[in-house]
Amino acid sequence: MPKTQTATPAFVTQLTLPRDGEAIDAGDINSPSTDLLGNTLYLYGLIAEQQRTIDELVKARGGITLTTPGQLLLEPGRTYTYADAIGIGRVDGYAGSVDLAALDVPAGVTLTFGPDPAPGASSTLTVTVAPEAVAGTYNITLTGTGPDGKSARTILPAVVAGQTQRSSFTFDTARTGSVDRAAGKTAATFVVAVQRQGNFADPINLSVTNLPAGITATWSKNPATGNGALEPMASVLTLTVGASVPAGTYNLNVRAEGGGVVRTQGVALAVTSAATGTDASYTLETVYDAGDPLVVNGATVYVNRTGGYTGPVTLSVGQQASGPVILVNGQPWTTTVAGNTARITADGASRGLSNSGVAPLPNSYSGSATYGLVRGEAVVGGVLMTRFAALQYRWGNKTYGAAGTSDVVTS
To answer: Any residues with CB less than 8 A from the CB of 7 and at least 6 apart, and which?
Structure first.
């Protein structure tokens, strides 16, 4: 007798198996048409559910990961830049720009990213640490978020070092200097080095105290500015000694002040006696301005005094009926100087000439040339001393002057 066995509802409601071992045929299956229709709808529903699962899996594909440069060692008052240090991993071709942010950042520390949002595989991290940042070890959380909400996070360890030195400075210069007036010297120079500690960055005002009458102090740079830990030539002090200052050693104090900090250092300046009698003299020297000799216009005549001579010197250039007017300290042809320098220039415009100028002309210059001299006259020890220095200058398309001599004439 046939046996009835319940089958899986997904396909049929009943399956009849023969007991006599004969093959199963359509007559053995009780499958009403309504049951077949129910099985078909069930299969369609199952397929739809599987498609929804596949769609969700596809949607979940892709994502981001973040990597950091490792532990940061930071000092107060400094800024650090880590190029391309924030790595952005993109899973399964994820292409969205990633917004970067930092959480749990310690007070006094600022993190910025560039670019942000980051469209590529990395971003540059810049960390600014304020001078008042508190020392310690911190775990900073970095997050990255895509436009579809996908996100990642990682920990960036950071150590902020303690302020090891008080904000301050020191300076140093030579303890001794000398002015050998017998050799014609009138000044001594002192190089001032500044060392800054604890991120000291204030300007430093420099001065010399207890200067005696006749000695003056000038600085190449005052106040001394900068933020380098060591500035070996922050400024140069020049002490100039007048002729009236007696010979001897003068103890001076160099003073530096800035940011509420004051430093002083003693300097001993030795001044020798000036030479007298026949040792007193002077010479002249022409130094042309730097530049194209066919363009520049100017030279400095130096009065090199020796043996203690400090009197006036009359400088003159031989007048020419044609050509440019030569100006000595702005005066035509001649002037008297009490100092150690005079400026020489050519004025061609007043005579309708162009491109006139005082300059050391090359041998290849095509215009005509002649000798030119600056003449110096001074009464030294009751004797008229005359000195000469060479001078060259252009005259439109011509020149006056060539290599001269330093003849000495006394009368």
So the answer is: 13, 14, 15
- Amino acid present at 386: T
> Cα 318 to the chain's mean position, in Å?
50
Q: Which helix or strand (DSSP H or E) is residue 36 part of?
A: helix 33-60
149 Cβ contact partners less than 8 Å away, ≥ 6 residues apart: none
Q: What's the CATH superfamily of 168-271? A: Immunoglobulins (2.60.40.10)
Match 């095509």 to its residue by tokens: 366
pLDDT tens digits for 16-31? 455 455 555 555 555 4
- Distance spanning both ends of the chain, measured CA to CA: 163
Question: How far apart (Å, rounded) are the C-alpha atoms in residues 199 and 197?
Answer: 6
Pair 386, 374: CB distance under 8 Å: no
What DSSP line would sit under 202-269, residue for residue? --BEEEEESPPTTEEEEESSSSB----SEEEEEEEEEEEE-TTSPSEEEEEEEEEEETTEEEEEEEEE
> pLDDT tens across 101-111, in order?
999 999 989 99
Q: DSSP for 275-341?
A: P-GGG-EEEEEEEEPSS-TTT---EEEEEEEETT--S-EEEEE---SSSPEEEETTEESEEEESSSE
Tell me what the mean pLDDT of segment 372-376 comes to: 90
* CATH architecture, domain defined by 63-160: Sandwich (2.60)
277-410 CATH choice from 2.30.29, 2.60.40, 3.30.10, 1.20.144: 2.60.40
Report residue 241 as tokens: 């000694």
CB of 30 closer than 8 Å to CB of 6: no
Amino acid at 259: G
Q: What is the domain partition of the chain in residue ranges?
A: 3-60, 63-160, 168-271, 277-410
Query: Cβ neighbours of residue 274 under 8 Å, at least 6 residues apart?
Result: 181, 182, 243, 307, 308, 310
Structure tokens at 248: 């001897």
Helix (H, G, I), strand (E, B) or coil at 93: coil
pTM higher than 0.90, yes or no? no
pLDDT for position 370: 47
Question: 386-395: per-residue pLDDT in tens?
Answer: 999 998 887 7
